[in-house]
Design a protein that fits this description.
Helices cover 46% and strands 4% of the residues. It is mostly helical. The chain has a 5-stranded mixed sheet. The longest helix is centred in the middle third of the chain and has 25 residues.
Length: 457
């Protein structure tokens, strides 16, 4: 039997993926230690593991941005709500830093609720920029992503709409055929933009999916849905919805915050073996929701540092105050209470942070890896209700099931908006504001958000 070169390459890639998955499943030294300490164990590592360690070292070194916004020394801080899902540092960093280019968007454009998402025609990269950023030929995603979404739309739209027509619009969130078609076009446009950004900025990344790449993806087998959590972007309510979809609860309103995050009702994809995980990645609907990056950052700060939270005040507050506050009081050093937004910004921008990053303010592209995993649906927090309702109808969810809009954690707090975001960023310097924008620059590009301030470049 003759084996073609293409078949040989496919077999080799499949074997590499199996080896990578099995290495992590064994819990070997490569996962058990922090990135900066890998070489202490070099005598016990196999040749494959040493090569992986060197690759990780190189990728981390290359992440430095033009303002030394490297996060190469970071370690994943545990979260009070997500500590069951966190492992040691391991999510491979992008090989391309979040570089900035003037005039990439309309000059002086300001984000408003109506203009958060830019016209995709504005996202053009010059030949010079492409030459600078492209280090290898583009690696394109599977071509069945948009096709599968469109076919899914075609097969399910008539069923969903006919079901919706039986009940009142208030009960189903009825979507007219015209609006349905427009939403399909919006989602497909986001997919095309993501492919373009990935081909431009991250074409040289490894294409091997490991357990660490999928540790934030929750599995709902009944409706064949994979949901990647991005905290502060409707994460809690989407988990409530997944639990109901899975048949593990009947009343979505009775699912409390702690039950949702700590009740072990849902499994993440990294708990499956390589074969099971690969099958789900290839056949399930893959979904993620994102939010305006700086607004999400402010939301995380308000939630974790302006409200009582023993874990975050102890784990993050104390080292932040110790390093960035002059003449800190003994009480502040002891409790970690009262971290200011400026101090939080200093911590975020520090190459040598006193404590690692956290899932609540990590970049969305580093949580869900959209250049490695082909997401069929990228939703926006800014249009959460309509897009979530659209997605639920698309996957064949019960017609009366809708994403809840309530919050039972710090319910008295006003929802973080762009105006509130501007208020908090008025507490930092213009340079610091620019650097925070640089830190989240890849999220702005990939998810097509406008600049939140006029003076950003």
């Amino acid at each position: 039997m003759n084996i073609t070169g293409e078949q040989c390459r496919e077999h080799t890639q499949e074997q590499e993926e199996i080896i990578a998955w099995q290495l992590e499943a064994r819990g070997d030294a490569l996962e058990r230690v922090m990135l900066g300490r890998l070489y202490e164990y070099s005598d016990t590592l196999s040749l494959e593991e040493r090569l992986d360690a060197q690759a990780m070292k190189m990728r981390t070194t290359l992440r430095q941005s033009r303002e030394t916004l490297s996060t190469q020394d970071r370690e994943k801080g545990k979260s009070d709500n997500y500590q069951d899902f966190q492992t040691a540092e391991g999510i491979l960093s992008s090989t391309i830093p979040p570089m900035q280019f003037p005039h990439f968007e309309k000059s002086g454009q300001v984000a408003t609720p109506e203009s958060l998402e830019q016209d995709t025609a504005l996202n053009r990269v010059s030949k010079r920029q492409r030459k600078l950023l492209k280090t290898t030929p583009p690696i394109y995603h599977n071509t069945n992503v948009v096709t599968s979404f469109s076919s899914s739309f075609t097969s399910s739209s008539s069923t969903a709409l006919s079901s919706a027509s039986v009940l009142s619009s208030s009960a189903t969130g009825f979507i007219s055929p015209e609006r349905w078609k427009k939403l399909v076009n919006i989602v497909e446009a986001r997919q095309r933009l993501m492919k373009e950004m990935c081909a431009t900025y991250k074409s040289s990344i490894s294409r091997t999916v490991t357990r660490l790449h999928v540790q934030n993806i929750f599995v709902e087998d009944k409706h064949k849905l994979l949901y990647c959590q991005v905290p502060k972007a409707g994460c809690s309510n989407w988990k409530r919805t997944l639990i109901v979809l899975a048949g593990k609860a009947s009343d979505i309103q009775n699912l409390k915050h702690d039950t949702v995050h700590n009740g072990n009702h849902l499994k993440t994809l990294n708990h499956f073996d390589q074969k099971e995980a690969t099958h789900r990645l290839k056949t399930y609907t893959k979904v993620m929701f994102v939010r305006e990056p700086l607004e999400r950052l402010v939301s995380a700060y308000r939630d974790k540092f302006e409200n009582p939270n023993d874990y975050y005040h102890s784990m993050f507050g104390k080292p932040i105050i110790s390093k960035y506050r002059a003449n800190a009081s003994e009480e502040a050093l002891k409790t970690g209470n009262g971290v200011t937004f400026q101090e939080f910004a200093h911590y975020l921008l520090d190459v040598h942070r006193p404590v690692g990053m956290d899932i609540h303010w990590e970049q969305a592209n580093q949580l869900c890896h959209p250049c490695l995993i082909d997401y069929d649906f990228i939703g926006k927090f800014e249009n959460m209700e309509e897009e979530s309702n659209f997605l639920l109808r698309l996957i064949g969810a019960p017609p009366n099931l809708r994403l809840p809009s309530f919050k039972d954690r710090n319910p008295a707090d006003k929802k973080t908006s762009l105006s509130i975001t501007h208020k908090y960023f008025s507490q930092v310097s213009k340079l610091e504001r620019q650097r925070v924008y640089d830190f989240y620059y890849m999220d702005y590009l990939m998810f097509n958000y406008s600049k939140p301030f006029k003076d950003l470049y």
